[in-house]
Q: What sequence folds into this?
């Protein structure tokens, strides 16, 4: 008989490829089972939607987009997606890598507060995964301990993986702070930022900064500072209550680390870190060896131009509406050089040389035009001078006009540069001057005295 949480009973063969072995876990919208890939003889994890949400088209679309979003991630800190498919009834499923280990919720419940080095190390690994998501315009919106999974590398060192990209999570019941159930609220309220409480669609990377800062707080304190007995009390605490300093209960926590965590939990997102690179740089000094290198990788991921998700406009909206279209540039930490800035010396030198060349060429052209215009103006004005007027001396004329340019007289014959023009006007009489030539706009005019 089929389990109420799974579309097929244990032992069933899915699509002729995956044999269901056991149920691994279930939430408000999905259920995960352990299965065997019968072709490759390896364990995998299969994720199905809960039957009660299969009739919700939005939930089905988000479910399949989760596979596409996670499938595009290259970070080792994101659970790999191997395959997607549909049952004969049309129900979708996702085939993911099978992870052996435990999530951070179980770690905290089992062992309580963690060491500073481990807590910072795991947070930096989560930052690396989220940085790649943010670079693609995806905001997780459901960062919490149960979605951060620790498995062991072959070396034995823990490897953290971020789970559940793109899945809408619902608020807990009044008696369960961390439970997710079907609802219009996206995310788990205990870890949601104040702005996400208001609108899940009006969030950006700083909402994930809040949630991850809260996880780091809980790793060090052993409990969530906004824990309450009801959903209403949780919402009120997140909106109004300030998280207490970790140093009140753990004096060994450095003041700088405490300040960084409290900055993540600022009520106004403008007062938080701008993104994962900022957060990583702030906490890396308190992490284990290699933390600085991890922070550098995170910065490089966010400085890389975002890649298109390759989806239609309608499907991309599921992610794009949670982050401004201009991201991730607006998520880069203040003062962090952009990729263009790192190439600035060579680029700016080439730009300056180009501007100087253009300016020089323009100046030469205008100078040449100016000389030609001045010569024409002087020649025209000279031709309008009556024969009774003395010609200018060579000293006054040649200072403005090239000596090779002859000055014509009223009779059309050139004047000698060293003599004055003879007077032809009657003695004691005067001849009216010719009407002055209209000024030519934008061309310097020479007046002959």
A:
């Amino acid at each position: 008989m089929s389990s109420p949480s799974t579309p097929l009973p244990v032992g069933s063969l899915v699509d002729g490829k995956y044999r269901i072995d056991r149920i691994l876990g279930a939430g408000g919208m999905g259920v995960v089972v352990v299965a065997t890939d019968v072709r490759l003889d390896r364990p995998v994890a299969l994720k199905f939607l809960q039957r009660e949400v299969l009739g919700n088209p939005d939930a089905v679309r988000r479910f399949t987009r989760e596979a596409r979003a996670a499938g595009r991630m290259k970070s080792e800190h994101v659970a790999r997606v191997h395959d997607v498919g549909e049952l004969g009834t049309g129900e979708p499923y996702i085939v993911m890598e099978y992870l052996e280990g435990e999530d951070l919720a179980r770690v905290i419940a089992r062992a309580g507060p963690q060491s500073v080095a481990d807590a910072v190390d795991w947070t930096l690994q989560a930052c690396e995964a989220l940085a790649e998501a943010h670079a693609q315009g995806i905001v997780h919106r459901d960062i919490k301990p149960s979605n951060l999974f620790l498995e062991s590398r072959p070396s034995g060192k823990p490897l953290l993986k971020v789970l559940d990209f793109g899945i809408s999570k619902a608020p807990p019941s009044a008696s369960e702070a961390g439970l997710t159930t079907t609802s219009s609220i996206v995310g788990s309220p205990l870890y949601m930022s104040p702005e996400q409480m208001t609108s899940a669609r009006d969030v950006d990377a700083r909402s994930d900064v809040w949630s991850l800062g809260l996880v780091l707080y809980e790793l060090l304190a052993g409990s969530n500072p906004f824990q309450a007995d009801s959903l209403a009390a949780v919402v009120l605490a997140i909106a109004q209550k300030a998280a207490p300093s970790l140093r009140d209960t753990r004096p060994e926590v450095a003041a700088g680390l405490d300040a960084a965590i409290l900055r993540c939990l600022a009520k106004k997102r403008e007062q938080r870190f701008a993104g994962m690179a900022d957060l990583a740089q702030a906490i890396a000094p308190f992490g284990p060896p290699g933390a600085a290198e991890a922070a550098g990788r995170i910065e490089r991921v966010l400085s890389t131009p975002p890649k298109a998700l390759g989806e239609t406009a309608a499907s991309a909206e599921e992610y794009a509406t949670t982050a401004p279209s201009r991201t991730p540039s607006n998520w880069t930490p203040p003062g962090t050089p952009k990729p263009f800035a790192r190439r600035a010396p060579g680029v700016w030198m080439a730009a300056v040389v180009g501007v100087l060349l253009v300016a020089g060429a323009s100046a030469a052209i205008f100078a040449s035009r100016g000389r030609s215009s001045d010569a024409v103006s002087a020649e025209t004005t000279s031709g309008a001078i009556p024969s009774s007027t003395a010609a200018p001396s060579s000293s006054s004329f040649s200072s403005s006009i090239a000596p090779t340019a002859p000055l014509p007289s009223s009779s059309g014959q050139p004047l000698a540069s060293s003599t004055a023009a003879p007077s032809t006007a009657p003695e004691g009489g005067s001849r009216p001057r010719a009407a002055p030539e209209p000024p030519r706009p934008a061309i310097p005019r020479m007046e002959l005295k």
Observations:
- The first helix runs from residue 57 to 72.
- The first strand starts at residue 13 and ends at 14.
